[in-house]
Model the fold of this input.
Amino acid sequence: MGFLARLGAGIKKGPSFFRDVVEELKKVRWPSRKELVSYTGIVLVTVTLIAVFFAVIDLGISQIIELILGQ
Done:
């Protein structure tokens, strides 16, 4: 099967693909506003803690390198 034939077959499947997408989105359980705010807070706190952790590690490694190089 050539490229154009495969392209044509894919285009014919397009409408059914989008119908399937809409059907699947109807099955999704969307979070409430309260849940969404809670989850967002958890993500922000986690990202902040990880950023602070890596900043401390980076500072420590740079201090060790300065001691080794004697600068």
